[in-house]
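Encode chain A's predicted structure.
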Amino acid sequence: MRLFVNQLTAMDFSYLHPIRGLLGESWLVDIELAGGLDDQGMVLDFGDVKRQVKQLIDEGFDHRLLVPADHPGLSVEDDQLSFLLDNGLRIRHRGPADALQFIPGETITRTQVAKTIHQALQPKLPGNVQSMQLTLYPEPEDGAWYQYSHGLKQHCGNCQRIAHGHRSRIRIWRDGIRDAMLEHLWAERLRGTYIGTETDMVAITSCNDQTCFRFAYTAEQGAFELELPADRCYLLDTESTVENIARHIRERLEKEQQGQRFRVQAFEGIGKGAISESS
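Encoded structure for chain A:
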């Protein structure tokens, strides 16, 4: 007998890639459990699936920086991590241990992340559950989208972690008409970026003759620091909440194309976000 729960939860996180650097991502999680029936006539109560399985995924993988543990350019010492990219540049991260999740392998893949979650979940399942299958996948592409990472130092939850992220759609209306060209323009501007707050940028450094930005702040969970190539950063003069991102895009559009009215719908991962409209 098999039990399934589709879209059990959504994971919003960032990960390190040898070529593309720091990337934000959002994956939906489907789960299928196989086994005999318990005294209730169930493989596992749906409430237990949502409570136990979802909680483990949310606590252990969501809003973390996923690191390929076997990448040859990785070095870790105490609370500091250094990740050498294929082009010779480095990304450096410092923060509490629970801001990171190490995944076996030289690169982060959906298969390997699913396997890691499976290994963490298996000992917690009742004896009648014989096997488990996890499927991780992004939201189906529908128009313009981009991946970004950020950190929100004033957030009281895990969003304060300096390197977590999202795969997000963007929708823009100009004078009441949907404008796909502007959507793709902004998606390209923000794709693969770290959206940082100017006041959190504490230093401008250099690595292999390339300019890097260093961001740092102290939040409720501890001290955080992130250094990465400047050309992979996009700076705001506000906190990088999705509300401020939507407003920033709308204000830029109004400045660049005066006299026109805009409505910007910026997503933060899957099924949530903010809308900013011209007054």
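Helices lie at 46-60, 110-121, 180-190, 242-256.
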